[in-house]
Amino acid sequence: MLQKLRDQIKKHPGLIPQFFFICLGMGGAFLYLFRLARGPHVTWNKSSNPEPWNQLSPSYQYKFVAINTDYENLKKEGPDF
Q1: In 3D, which of 42, 70, 75 has the Cα closest to residue 58?
Q2: Which of 20, 29, 68, 72 is least crowded, fewest Cβ atoms below 10 Å from its Cβ?
Q3: What residue ranges in 1-81 does DSSP mark as E strands?
Q4: Which InterPro entries match (predicted)?
């Protein structure tokens, strides 16, 4: 399969940027999914910690980008479970 891919690239050099950006997008998608799967709000073992999101502090920045929210000054609202 790699032989066929290399032959197509030699015949059509305009495909090189397309292959590059497809691989870059697939790699970025994989890394983002890996980041989501490793987050503190995800539970893989329900017997040891069934609700890990209850142990997050109110100042934990769980969003990827927070433009208008200052997580340092947030106070916890609600009871501890």
Answers
A1: 75
A2: 68
A3: none
A4: B12D
Residue-wise pLDDT tens for the chain (81 aa)?
889 988 988 999 898 899 899 999 999 999 999 988 887 777 777 787 777 777 777 666 666 666 776 766 766 666 666
- Say if residues 52 and 42 touch (Cβ distance below 8 Å): yes
Cα Rg of the chain, angstroms = 22
Q: Which amino acid is at 14?
A: G
Written as one letter, the residue type at 78 is G
Residue 73 CB partners (closer than 8 Å, separation 6+): 59
CA distances from 70 to 30, 53, 55, 56, 62 (A): 29, 20, 20, 16, 12
Place of tokens 């709000």: 41
